[in-house]
Amino acid sequence: MCAVVGVINSKNASTVAYYALFAMQHRGQEASGISVSDGLNIKTHKARGEVGQIFNTQILANLKGEIAIGHNRYSTAGNSSLHDAQPVTATCSLGDISLVHNGNLINKEEVRKELIDNGAIFHSNMDTENVVHLIAKSKKETLKDRFVESLMQSKGAYCFMLASKNKLFVVRDPYGVRPLSLGRLKDGGYIVASETCAFDLIEAEFVRDVKPGEMLIFTQGSDEFESIQIFDQVDPRICAFEYIYFARPDSIIEGKSVYEVRKKMGETLAKKFKEKVDFVVPVPDSGVSAAIGFAQYLKIPLEMAIVRNHYVGRTFIEPTQEMRNLKVKLKLNPMKKVLEDKDIVVIDDSVVRGTTSKKIIALLKQAGARKIHLAIACPEIKFPDIYGIDTPTFEELISANKNIEEVREYTGADSLIFLDIDELVSSIGNERKYSLISFNGDYFIQ
Amino acid sequence: MCAVVGVINSKNASTVAYYALFAMQHRGQEASGISVSDGLNIKTHKARGEVGQIFNTQILANLKGEIAIGHNRYSTAGNSSLHDAQPVTATCSLGDISLVHNGNLINKEEVRKELIDNGAIFHSNMDTENVVHLIAKSKKETLKDRFVESLMQSKGAYCFMLASKNKLFVVRDPYGVRPLSLGRLKDGGYIVASETCAFDLIEAEFVRDVKPGEMLIFTQGSDEFESIQIFDQVDPRICAFEYIYFARPDSIIEGKSVYEVRKKMGETLAKKFKEKVDFVVPVPDSGVSAAIGFAQYLKIPLEMAIVRNHYVGRTFIEPTQEMRNLKVKLKLNPMKKVLEDKDIVVIDDSVVRGTTSKKIIALLKQAGARKIHLAIACPEIKFPDIYGIDTPTFEELISANKNIEEVREYTGADSLIFLDIDELVSSIGNERKYSLISFNGDYFIQ
Amino acid sequence: MCAVVGVINSKNASTVAYYALFAMQHRGQEASGISVSDGLNIKTHKARGEVGQIFNTQILANLKGEIAIGHNRYSTAGNSSLHDAQPVTATCSLGDISLVHNGNLINKEEVRKELIDNGAIFHSNMDTENVVHLIAKSKKETLKDRFVESLMQSKGAYCFMLASKNKLFVVRDPYGVRPLSLGRLKDGGYIVASETCAFDLIEAEFVRDVKPGEMLIFTQGSDEFESIQIFDQVDPRICAFEYIYFARPDSIIEGKSVYEVRKKMGETLAKKFKEKVDFVVPVPDSGVSAAIGFAQYLKIPLEMAIVRNHYVGRTFIEPTQEMRNLKVKLKLNPMKKVLEDKDIVVIDDSVVRGTTSKKIIALLKQAGARKIHLAIACPEIKFPDIYGIDTPTFEELISANKNIEEVREYTGADSLIFLDIDELVSSIGNERKYSLISFNGDYFIQ
Amino acid sequence: MCAVVGVINSKNASTVAYYALFAMQHRGQEASGISVSDGLNIKTHKARGEVGQIFNTQILANLKGEIAIGHNRYSTAGNSSLHDAQPVTATCSLGDISLVHNGNLINKEEVRKELIDNGAIFHSNMDTENVVHLIAKSKKETLKDRFVESLMQSKGAYCFMLASKNKLFVVRDPYGVRPLSLGRLKDGGYIVASETCAFDLIEAEFVRDVKPGEMLIFTQGSDEFESIQIFDQVDPRICAFEYIYFARPDSIIEGKSVYEVRKKMGETLAKKFKEKVDFVVPVPDSGVSAAIGFAQYLKIPLEMAIVRNHYVGRTFIEPTQEMRNLKVKLKLNPMKKVLEDKDIVVIDDSVVRGTTSKKIIALLKQAGARKIHLAIACPEIKFPDIYGIDTPTFEELISANKNIEEVREYTGADSLIFLDIDELVSSIGNERKYSLISFNGDYFIQ
């Protein structure tokens, strides 16, 4: 996941970036950072933790300038450290530069090895740093040419933003796997961000999505910006998981409301649901939108019979073994009074390892529910994603190893349905292709 | 608000208290603390912040013992400091004691003045400290008699828990304004907590509510506990606000599911709602339960058309004046795609100053909603509460100064309905009296 | 030990107190604190650590007012905590008060017990808190009468300073065991401090010593101050250890230069030293002054053949057992090139347990010194001091258990001399009595 | 200045390095760090502050391995940051490396520019980082060849230590400007350190000095080490300032005791001192050794009439202008009782800007001294040093702009003598050349 934002021609570019990162906190809580250019030099502040903890008024006041880029990092591995926070900065022969990146470069290791063999010194494990080194080593004369040259050597699904003393470069990979939208600030500046919910917060006007393979080049002080296509054209494939669970429901991706797509998924599920139930129960918060679509289609009540504790964050003390289920219960508490002797259908957004579903079903049974049907608003996840999503290995993915009936048995549900791939695609809208790797194993970037 | 918990006869009493406080975090995020008795001495750890940040495995490991009391503090005033965190401890002539308190003593200032005039040295502004001094100064021989004597001098709405080296005393005020329930732990110990949601998390079994005016006395190592009525009997009056918005929806207060009471409030509202709307929109999270009841009764769709950002906590940078509405928007974002050209009814749990409702209506209009009706699942708040709820003064309470039509006009809604007091009472259940001060000004504790 | 300072009628009273505490840091590095009265209320800042780390410009700027008292705490026990930092403050019926104390109350436990039996709640283990409670509980009308009454119940060797909103009270115990001097600031204010080296730093003029049993009462805005004798007159007995090693050499105590007294001690030692040596070696820094007197008298060279590492503070990692001697060596390093094949006399200020002397002798031998004579500029320490000095128990004091020859053998020195008690007294000056408990066991305060 | 240490073949290499850095804390208090190789990877811990604050038992326990290098940083410029702490580490194509450096590269800026033009990304302002980049970029096959190649491109006065997974390289510049000594640990390992005082502390045996232009190569597990001369031979020139004030008096540099050299300087000064004085007063601690030599030669008493407050560290609050002299007084306090009406000679180690001498003379006069003669145990400093010492510019150096009489007048002394250059050289010993840049402007490295 991760979130990126770029701002130019705004007096308080770093403050705008801060609020945009705040709105996109759901895309990454591991670390955050903002770089700002004051026209001469680039200053950066980054740290581990959530946006609200990392920045304060004084820190933002020190980040003065009209160009800013920012990043929220999603924890993809246990061994991440401060060194793995973005933006990544460097002083190269063309001056200060700063880079942020959302996605994954599949040829990361080869490029890194070659760079190290040629004397580059790395300070992180991030593929982002590859690109900074490629820019620094490039012999091209302009930063634009250097950046393009570097991207030619970097395969993967990504959005990059590069700030220099007076320019902001924004680029989306040829397939457009990760979302990226352009907006206009009230004060005339531009903002580019992973999700449109960032625009709502700061009352920026949505202009258009950045196109797959498109590079936008903004210059400080200029209202015009340059757009170039730097790759051969290919069929775009936005990642279906953005609709399924990455994005905030109030974001609009490629013209589609995430909330409405999710409701449609729930509706599609409902069409093939054959059981008789007293009511629909979403797993909060991820299953709520689909459950609303599901309940509306079948005209059966929706009950918030599982309560979520929103204070559960990164830090709580691991329960001992005697307190089994506690880890899920800290977050989700089913209501006995509501569930007792009821037949229900539970709506969730996906089944990955199956362990959470199993625990939820167990808690619901313990709370007295009679029949518990499980309806999942996405297809079976059978393949690891290597383009930037932190999915587990084949061995860990329950649907890579068990058929639906076996998964049902494992979870303890009385029945279990998934969306199939066509239903997923038609719920989003058939008019274009999607990245469906996790469902069909089509690794289209090689 | 605030939350209190007491645990006895459990090997890891402090860990049980920790999880109970975690489950009751919604009742106070200002500060937390736990005291534990190891049979000889009492150790305490308390700090400002949320439970998950204050405690870690090592700190809990240092809090060894079979008796624990804990507290979450709700910020009732801007000038609170670490000194105002609970538990409050002392070494008196009977040994170490520790006290926690949920509520408000209305004769706090007189008692405090008299204590100071007699040489008591205070270290906080809390009324809790009054009681600790009264106990320390009492000439009674037993801690029980001292505690009872101290409570006789303390008027108000409260729950107190007092730990000594080998005893746990729990008491609820004569009117039973604040909730307090008794549970049984799996390992045979007892737990007493403000809300039953604390029992669910640690799989404690609900035993019964503590009665108004009842003192329970537990002794370490003994399965028996003593129950005494220390006050003349009066009509109990549990605070209606517990049902309206204090408690977690999954708690059971005096035998009633908070979630179901809230749904009933929504249903009662719906019965008198006369407008035609496309769908129902809750203000999340406080309005969701009532909105479900409302929508189910009228058989109209419920849409989560306002998205809440749960990362908004205590710490974010105050927006500048140019970014008006941002403070509400950081938390609540209406979805244009869903709302455009729709007639809607918005369900919220209360109107206090009216400013938030006004901003929400404005945001919804900006998002394109056509007609916006506002339905409030509680009566007009016309009086300040002085028994422990942090309500504003007369001047600030919009319904103390404006009639419904004027409030409607102020908020910008197209229509506005409240529950009336009788409807509120019947939604909870008519069988008993409630504390309704905020609605009718009946200050029954003098 | 500990250091106290009081300042009145100075615009930046807290800053003056800060520098005075800085100059008296040698009297205590465990914790420091300053209270300041702005004419209405008293504010306090205290923390563990050294003065330079605890205060900064902003903290001092927040401590505005013309009356300040301050304290450096000497670590007398391992279990001290922040609660044991001074000043100790309270709001009593006469308003805010703050107290600092240098010394030890021998009836601490009885008074504390009686206070607790009467309902007082203690927050520290300090005897200072006794006096605060006695003041708070007193029924006398004025603070002066209350303070005097409290002192009547407090036996021991001490200096107290009490600040109220507009007064500063300063008192020295009837025997004057601890030093206390009055000075005049350049801006007309007064300063009272444990040692005169504090005056030098801030260019205050020495006025006179506070008399044993004298209470000085200063009032804000008034140039006059009141002096009263609150105790029956007794023979004063200043603590001889102030001259031996507590005080800074540049302080003047009761009219005598500490440096010159120490030189005189060295000279007195030299008179009875019979061995032939190549040069004199002081143990730095405590033995330097005496060594200078010793060498000057005998007209033999002084060599700084042991180098002290002044970076050794509270925090360094305890060496493992293989690295024996390292703890002493971290602080003291003998120079082989200088010592090799030399006969020397080592001058130190005292022998307490004997372990350090033993290690130093061993290091000197290892460095190649041939004959090593040890001359100690104080008498044998045979009795624990209970009036405020942190001396070990009988069992630990080597001279309480061994005669001089046995001590010599234990340390490994080739010869060993001490000052005898008369020589000590005559080195300081015979004209008055001294507290010589550690040498003669005369516990004169009962 | 700065201090470096390297350890190999010792089980607790990082702990040995820690104590060595502790012993050499006087060479730099700005920042410290240690790298350790466990045979595979290199781990590093570094931070701003003093050694004792930066490391603790747990941190050292995490730095496991038999090879360690460490560094104390001297604050040479106000803008230093954590990035400017050493060691500097990198993962290059030959694996992890770590480098520390004491000294100054005079061609730093040219090399750095060329490296950046070729794509190197810098993370600090240190010349040390140049060498790391040169090693990383080198095409040579072995680390030894790469390191040698890098040194060929680096002109200056330095000691470098380079650790790889299984080797330790140590090198001293061709002129041997900075000291570097080899020692043998008790457990058979080797230690190389800037000063021999580090050996004393950990009871390592001095083996020999590293020769100018010599590279020593140690391999983990091997008792043998390789020695190569990597530069054409030139006349060595150890920096005279090491003897004058950098080194600890208990260190032995090139066979000479620093303490004895300083005493000799004092003696040489004394030979040409013609005034009549009552006694000699050193400016502590820097002037003490010379003062002892001075006093012994003239057979006049030495008095420690200026007391130094060793608690003065980095952190104290800057005095306001009314408190003039306070900054010097915080550190140095002259004793009126000793100085009054006396004629004295003050011994200090150098005069740089003249401001401190001026303040000391003023304080001594204020304390009542009659005649004050000043004798400086080094020649007039007339030239800035650019080889690693933080001396001021021409404009700031008082002796670059004033003759002796004018300096005397400026300081207020009654007479003033310096050592001349020949006297300095003969005090150290005439047998070899020294770096005397500050005195004669002979910038011998070009």
How do the strands and helices of this protein lay out in sequence?
Four copies of one chain form a homotetramer.
Chain A: E1 3-8, H1 13-23, E2 31-37, E3 42-48, H2 51-54, H3 57-62, E4 67-73, E5 88-92, E6 95-105, H4 108-117, H5 127-137, H6 143-152, E7 156-163, E8 167-172, E9 181-184, E10 190-193, H7 197-202, E11 205-209, E12 214-219, E13 225-229, E14 238-239, H8 240-246, E15 252-253, E16 256-257, H9 258-271, E17 279-282, H10 288-298, E18 306-308, H11 326-331, E19 332-334, H12 336-339, E20 344-348, H13 355-366, E21 372-376, H14 398-401, H15 404-411, E22 415-418, H16 421-428, E23 434-435, H17 437-440
Parallel strand pairs in A: 14-23, 17-20, 20-21, 21-22
Antiparallel strand pairs in A: 1-4, 1-10, 2-3, 2-4, 5-6, 6-7, 7-8, 8-12, 9-10, 9-11, 12-13, 15-16, 18-19
Helix pairs in contact in A: 4-5, 5-6, 9-10, 9-16
Protein name (chains A, B, C, D): Amidophosphoribosyltransferase
InterPro entries (chains A, B, C, D): GATase_2_dom, Ntn_hydrolases_N, PRTase-like, PRTase_dom, PurF, PurF_N
Pathway (chains A, B, C, D): Purine metabolism; IMP biosynthesis via de novo pathway; N(1)-(5-phospho-D-ribosyl)glycinamide from 5-phospho-alpha-D-ribose 1-diphosphate: step 1/2
